[in-house]
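Q: Start with the shorter request: fold the first protein.
A: Done. Sequence, then structure:
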Amino acid sequence: MGSPTLFVSMMNDKERREKALRQALRPALEHMGYRFLELRLDGSNLTLYVDKEGGIGLEDCRRVSERAGFILEMDNDLFGDYRLEVSSPGRERPLRFAADFREFLGWEVKLRLRDYKTKKLRGQIVACDDRLLTLAVGEEQVEVELEDIRRANLIPKD
C-alpha cells in the first residue's frame, strides 16, 4: 500500500478567492456574449475586465455589473462584500488564459510570477499551449507554467 500523495498549493487565500470568483463569473458573462479577460481583487474592490467584438461601452459595463452583482449576492458567504467595477481591457490588456496568449503571439508581455525567486519577467510571446507559455527574453527562450503566472499584461505597441 503506497503512501498518500500530498499536494501543496502555492496559492494564497486571495488567489483562492480570485479563482472561485473567476469560476463563478466567467461562464455567466461569456454566456451573455462577453469575453471574460480577468479580475483583480484589491481588498474589498473587485474589478472585472471584459471585452466583446467591437469593444464595450457604458451600457455593456452596466449589464455586466448587474449580472455579476446578482451572482455575488447569491453566494455572499463565499464571496463576501465587494465594491464592483467593470472595465474594458485598456492598452495594457490583462492576459489570463492560454487563448489570450495565443491571440497576441509576437507581442511583448510583462508577467508577475508566484515563484519566490523570479518575481517579474518581460518578453515576447513565442508560443502557448494549455499548460506552458514560451517567451523570448533577450536571446533566450523561457518557458513558464500558466498556473505560475500571478498577473500578465500586454506591453502596448507605440
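Q: Next, the second protein, separately.
A: Sequence, then structure:
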Amino acid sequence: MGDTVQMSFTETRAVPEASTAAVAVDLVTDGAVASDVADGTTDAAGAAAACCAPAAREAIGADEAERLARLLKAVADPARLRLVSLVAAHDDMEACVCDLTEPLGLSQPTVSHHLKVLVDAGILTRDKRGTWAYYRLVPGALGTLADRVLGL
C-alpha cells in the first residue's frame, strides 16, 4: 500500500499561434506532480514566467490601498465631486460655505457633512473665520491620485 506508482504520457495540442507544444507529465499517486515542457523549462510556472514580462514597479501595499480607498470613496459621491470643482473654480481655490450651498441644491447641513468628509480625506482644508467656514483645496491632493494608484 506504500508503493508509489508512476505513470507518464505525452500530449500534443495546437496553440493560438498554430504551433504545437509537447508536454510530458509524470503523475505520482501520492499527489505530487512534476512536468517537463518541451522548450526546456522545468514546470508550467516556469513556462508562464518565460512568456510574461516581470513587474516594472512595486504595487501599492495594504496600508496605502486603505488610504487611497478612503480618498476615492470621498470623491465617489457626485455632490462631493461638485464641491471639489466649485472650490477649485474660486480664486485661490478657496470658497466660503455660504457660496457652496445654493449651487448644489442641498441643505446646509448636508453640504457641511460632504465638506467634512472631504476635509477628513485630506482633499480640502477648513478655516473658520467668524461665523463662516472657508474651504480650500489642498494643493496636489487629487493631482497625485493617479500617480499613487498607477505608480506613474
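Q: Describe the second briefly.
A: The chain is about 40% helix and 25% strand. The longest strand covers residues 6-14.
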